[in-house]
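User: Sequence for trans-L-3-hydroxyproline dehydratase below. Tokens please.
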Amino acid sequence: PETAVRLRCPCGPVTAFVPWDGHRSGNPVRFHSVPAFAAATDVAIDVPGHGKVVVDIGYGGTFYAFLNAEQLGLDVCFSKTRDLVSAASAVTEAVKTQFKLHHPESEDLAFLYGTILTDGKDAFSEEPTTNICVFADEQVDRSPTGSGVTARIALQYHKGLIQLNQTRTFRSSTTGSLFTGKAVKATKFGGYNAVVVEVSGEAFYTGTATFTVEEEDSLKYGFFFK
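Assistant: Structure tokens for trans-L-3-hydroxyproline dehydratase:
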């Protein structure tokens, strides 16, 4: 009734669990993250145009900076998306220049992927908490973000705001889509106290891709740059 699918992601192995009724996959689907941890909390950052703000930095497969949008004079639920994106991007650039990240296993992963603005409702509650994830080149996630929810759960657990197996609901401010997340296991990752996080939500097929290898292709097995 449920199939485990083990995926090799850039951050490491992630196991997804997909319902199956004998004919097609269903919802909700869920995955167990790589070890997630609080990289730093209450870090003061000077953001040009916004002044000094305080951010938390969490890792959930990649690093994000987190802060309440109110620190930037915005409301994550009602402000214009363009304003939220501009402010979050400014925070990302400021953190990159003012805070050094470290990954326990791979320095290739020691970079800030983006900033997640929240409604500040981090303490455990049955009510959803809303955020917007602005990542890469000012892209906005349509969902609450799998790695982002993972990192946010890790921060909440680190701060004692949630306990193991307490489920929180996260809402995307852009589309209203919902994920749930919970810390299911405490672990260690390098020198960090970490957790494995389960994230659950809806998933739908959006496309397929076919790759073909022709025998005459001299580069069919790939190549390396020296």
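The longest helix spans residues 81-98.
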